[in-house]
Specification:
By secondary structure, the protein is an alpha/beta fold. It has one helix at about 55-65, and strands spanning about 1-5, 10, 25, 35, 45-50, 70. Strands 1-3-5-6 form a four-stranded parallel beta sheet, with no helix packed on it. Strands 2-4 form a two-stranded parallel ribbon. Strand 5 (about 45-50), helix 1 and strand 6 form a beta-alpha-beta unit.
Length: about 70
């Protein structure tokens, strides 16, 4: 499954997508400046669309080192 967050979203709260075991793709806009503790715990994320140099890009690379990023 895929989730596309609106440009008006500025944070992803703690455990927001916890146990979303079918979530493989997400679009996180540059407006997101905070991703909470274990926001994607037990999610099999494989792909993410982010803006280069964004907080989301940095966070995802730290927590999902094998994720495929699309810019």
């Amino acid at each position: 499954q895929e989730v596309v967050l609106a440009d008006s979203v500025w944070e992803i709260r703690n455990y927001a997508f916890k146990n979303c075991t079918s979530l493989t793709t997400i679009r996180i806009p540059a407006s997101v400046t905070y991703i909470g503790e274990e926001a994607f715990q037990d999610c099999p994320l494989q792909y993410a669309e982010v803006d280069e140099g964004s907080y989301a890009e940095e966070w995802l690379l730290r927590h999902f080192p094998n994720i495929h990023l699309v810019y």
